[in-house]
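Box S1 | Example of a co-folding query
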Amino acid sequence: MTLIDGKQTAAEIRGELSLRAAAFEERNGRKIGLGVVLIGNDPASEVYVRNKVRACEEVGISSHVLRLPAEISQEEAERAVEALAGDHSVHGVLVQLPLPRHLDERKILAKIPVEKDVDGFSEQNMGLLALHREGTVSCTPRGIMELLKRYHVETRGKHAVVVGRSNIVGRPMALRLLNADATVTVCHSKTQNLKEICAGADILVVAIGRAKYITADMVKEGAVVIDVGMNRDENGKLCGDVDFENVAEKVSMISPVPGGVGPMTIAMLLSNTVDAAERTAV
Ligand code: NAP
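Box S1 (continued) | Returned holo structure for NAP
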């Protein structure tokens, strides 16, 4: 069994991105910039934003964090995102989700121009993905495709099963796999025979948010398993959606939690930002 090491792969990617960021600075006389909008003070969002800022620093991208109060009005929030996105030193913009409940996420995300939408959550980028055209793909699915590529996992003609259909992971993941010529089945909470479907997968990607839900009897011998889940087990320890210990004995490759998909998500945010800067630079 091969362990798919997202931590190591992400470090390699950050190394590659540092060179591209330095070359950009050399050519343009300024750094690549990422604008991050943080509304309110959700503690988990604070941690995610801090990690993103740190990762930017590591590769030589400057980050501009715009902190807005939780009680901000819809109009003010939209104006603030628009203003940040209009700043020429900012090449990519992301709005940290979730937003306070009174705000309309869709309208706020729509204020990010498609070429600066480094999270790939805009309707236009999702539409481009669905049409198999070039656009920015959201970070987690892109990170998983990068892992599959770097671990030489063939997708063409393989049966890929994606468990979960969220807009940020499952749905774009299924489209990416389809675009890579896999035969794709998407499962969700209303799926019947989940066990049988998963057991038929050559490549199984699980993004449901339920600790150790996928057990060894649900997985095919020799399959490649990608675990996106981030949960706490009964002892408060971080774990995935897959029962790693038992499943690992049966499969050919598996990504662990932590150290699998998580580090790749941030690396792909940096990669999308560098791509955006290189595309827009004059
Ligand atoms: P989400 O928006 O809550 O979506 C969960 C999906 O799983 C839904 O489509 C849901 O089906 C499906 N589901 C739930 N229970 C199921 C079951 N018993 N059987 C089959 N399908 C089931 O979650 P998400 O944002 O996609 O995140 C999923 C997990 O990945 C979470 O643990 C999250 O923390 C983690 N995550 C990790 C990263 C990373 O970088 N490592 C990034 C993003 C998310 P319905 O649509 O029918 O409700």
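The chain has a mean pLDDT of 97. The longest helix spans residues 6-28.
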